[in-house]
Amino acid sequence: MKSRFGLSALVALAMSLPIGLHAAEAPTEFKGTGKLVVNNWGGPTVEKMHAAWYGDFPKATGIDVTFTSIPDVAKLKIMSQVGNVEWDVVDFEGAQMLQAMKDDLLEPIDYDLMYKLVPKDQLDPAQMTKYGIGSIAFGTIMAWNTESVGKKGPANWTEFFDKKAFPGRRALYARPKPTLEIMLMADGVAPKDIYPIDIDRAFRALAKFGPSVDLWVEKTSQWDVLIQNKEVDLMGSSLGRTVTQIDKGEPLAINFNQSIMEQSFWTIPKGAPNVKDAQKLVAWMAQAEGERASLKLFPYYSVANKTAYDGLPKELLAKMPGTPEHSANSLTINAQWWLEHDAEVQTRWLSWLSSR
Amino acid sequence: MTPIDASETAEKGKRLMPGLPSVTLTAWQRQQRGLTVSLMALPTAAMIGVFVMPLLVLLWMSFGGGSKTGFSVQGYIDLMQPVYLKLLMFTLQLAFITTMLCALFAYPLAYLMVNVSSRFAAWMGVVLFITLWLSFLARTFAWIIILQRRGIINNFLVGIGVIDSPLELVYNKLGAYIGMVHILLPFMVLTLIPAMKAIDPAYVRAGLSLGASPAKVFRDIYVPLSLPGLVAGSMLVFTLAFGFFITPAILGGGRAPTIVMAIRDQIQQLGNLQLAAATSMVLLVFCLGLLFLYDRLAGIDRIYDKGGK
Fold it and tell me: Hey, what's the signal peptide range on this chain (chain B) (predicted)?
């Protein structure tokens, strides 16, 4: 699974942040004594990330927070079957959340409690669902090596696969999501017309463009290795990983056109040891200050609190996929579609992969 | 305690105290028997708790146990798709070739370690063990550094002018094989060593003194006597290679998809535990079938007869 936080360069950024955001005492309904276990995607900078999100939640409320990784619906399902759920808050991807909802594994978010802390009009309704509120988004963008490909890279996925215009080696994720979306866009489908995915057309496009992919990437951590060693020239890579490598001085350029965003959500498992305090933490994390701090750490422009973007420096906003000019032609993963079609697509994908 | 059925005790009695009649048990025999039973209790419980129970749970899950849909053979029906056969065949091929290559490289290595001075052998052993301590993932990424387009080997070969453009050494099946053989080689060497050590050098000397050529002695005496180690080693390596996941996934660059990747997707992407359990059961039965076949061909019981004596 992908780990989102392998961004050691951003540690430096993190250090420069004022942490200790919620100096004020918490309202009485947020007081508690328990301990919460938060499950998210782990990685080397996760401690800074948590510090930004929770701020002084433990100090203000008296509720202790620890964390584990990695969100896994199957694991939660088994924990729930044997009646021993270990996680209080889980950072699920959209499709994972829906899968967990299908198996009735989640507790509804207590929005009334949240509104006591965060004004309702600050929150983005698009990221508020019954069982989860937006945490961050995971981005896949096209990137290229400016030394081997040139300053001007592909403008869209069709050009990305044009071997005449851009000679070089290409890499994509070894997963049908978002490869099918990429294939359709390369085949000329506009981002807004991708869903519902025409599976047959997507696999026809895969048969056409797939062979020009030299390397299928299994783990997100591979991007660092591939970029540093210049193993590939063009890639559909992780936004966070790529931006980190650019900040480290790697000769890369990225393009937000037809970029792909996948929204993740804070969820609370049903039967969690401490549902009440978990609700308090999820509400706490929706506050603007914490989300702003986490945005500064990681350029994922998709947090639930809209006011988190206020006062961020221009050059930081320029890196984020969600600014108006960047988001105009980007694609958001349709988690519902994937939930319904994953089994069918997965088999065809493996069949394609194993027949080469 | 009542007297125990003679036919049952006869076998055990012979093993415990050969030569004693065992129609009725003496007090000493009874005590001995009690001791055996109590000593066996813990390993038996461990066997059941750690190995048998999980397998039974897996079998139960493969028929839909614990799922909302109730019992069905749907998991096995879903497995009928040709893609699974294709993945299985490739995984078998990968495991088989890896085992063969490991045997090929490990045999001379183990021979060397058994027959050179013990200090040198100890050093070789340390080196082998150190590679076992390093994580699979670290070793996998280390191979990338060596094999990649601008890796050590390609830079060297291009530098001295042997080749014009870098060789494709990794992110294909070749890379997957290199990584797997490297990771599994120590297992083969370490199983071969005791088997080779158990070979009495007198046999070899006898063969030589009777006029056989060294090659003939090696072929007709040494190799057959070391076979139990080779059998055990290949079984170990084959079984490990069969379940390998991360190394072929990363070094194969999407060109070496194994059946374990399908199981991973079934669990993590689809949340279909029944299908994953069914796939695992089929793999298990398949592996058992292969072991059975191997037993008929090479004789697994040799491992207990000669190895490690």
Answer: none
